[in-house]
Design goal:
Mean pLDDT: 84
Main location: nucleus
Subcellular location: Nucleus
Distance between the termini: 35 Å
Keywords: ATP-binding, Nucleotide-binding, Nucleus
Protein name: CHROMODOMAIN-HELICASE-DNA-BINDING PROTEIN 3-RELATED-RELATED
Low-confidence stretches: none
GO molecular function, one term: ATP binding
Structural class: mainly alpha
């Protein structure tokens, strides 16, 4: 079913990739993520929209601190701008 409701899509690049490294993906740049969340949250508030995203910043059971930082940022911008942010959890296939 088609809807006449406009949809907005944004891509935030907050990680680098280098195939020559043992661990090719860098950690998430929190300052870059925060700048992107600010802009997306502002736009969502202006357009009565919500933000939908996958869970990021959670590599394995050992390092959860980055996910907690991301989660605090999501909560902060949802509160400041009065929007809903939905995070989708999925399992990576091995």
């Amino acid at each position: 079913m088609e809807s006449d409701t406009p949809r907005w899509v944004a891509l935030a690049v907050v990680q680098s990739y280098n195939s020559r490294r043992k661990v090719p993906r860098s950690e998430i740049s929190i300052p870059d993520l925060e700048a992107c969340l600010f802009k997306a949250s502002f736009a969502a508030a202006q357009n009565s929209a919500s933000i939908h995203m996958p869970r990021i910043g959670y590599q394995d059971q050992a390092d959860r601190s980055q996910w907690y930082t991301v989660e605090r940022l999501l909560r902060k911008y949802a509160t400041v701008f009065g929007i809903k942010i939905y995070v989708y959890y999925y399992r990576r296939s091995s």
